[in-house]
Amino acid sequence: MLKEIRIHGRGGQGAVTAAQLLAHAAFLEGRGVQAFPFFGAERRGAPVKAFARISDEPILVHSQVYNPDYVIILSPNLMQVVDVTEGLKKDGLILMNTAKSPEETGLKGWRIATVDATGIVLGLKLLVAGLPVVNTAIVGAFAKATGEVKLESVLKTIRETWSGSAGEKNVHAAELAYEQLIKG
């Protein structure tokens, strides 16, 4: 069954890498995958979208994701400038990076899961150019929120992407986010 994911973030937060990590983790589990960004004239801090597809069969669709099963929000203040729920399927899930509980997000009528990915990466000092990059934490939370990929596959993907202490810090971020996820 085909599952589509749309990731909303700001340039520099790791939205594109998060889509690639999710796809690779699912690939390790023998599934068909796609991961790709949507760019305009983006710059650090500008709204960015990235997409991923996961399927048990070959994926023949090659368009943007218009009706996602899952929406991931890396920066909650994006909701002031982007309709993050646009096209989200009725039974879809929103995973949001926030210290708020699902009930406190202001999103009504949707299944919501939250995790303080920013707090996790700040605590681990996972910064690029002084800014927190929440992609590995959010991918760990996605594994728990959806069951679409196993945490073990996410951790293996992270270790294959970053070596040494950077890889282990990112693994720890994913593990903490998995543990700290709150489902509404």
What does this structure look like?
Helices cover 34% and strands 24% of the residues. It is of the alpha/beta class and 184 residues long. The protein has a single domain, classed as Pyruvate-ferredoxin oxidoreductase, PFOR, domain III (Pyruvate-ferredoxin Oxidoreductase, domain 3, 3-Layer(aba) Sandwich), CATH 3.40.920. The strands form 2 sheets. A 7-stranded mixed beta sheet has the order 2-3-1-4-5-6-9. Strand 7 and strand 8 form a beta hairpin. It is globular and about 40 Å long. The model has no long low-confidence stretch (mean pLDDT 94).
Observed structural traits:
single chain; 184 residues; alpha/beta; Pyruvate-ferredoxin Oxidoreductase, domain 3; seven-stranded mixed β-sheet; two-stranded antiparallel ribbon; 9 strands; 34% helix
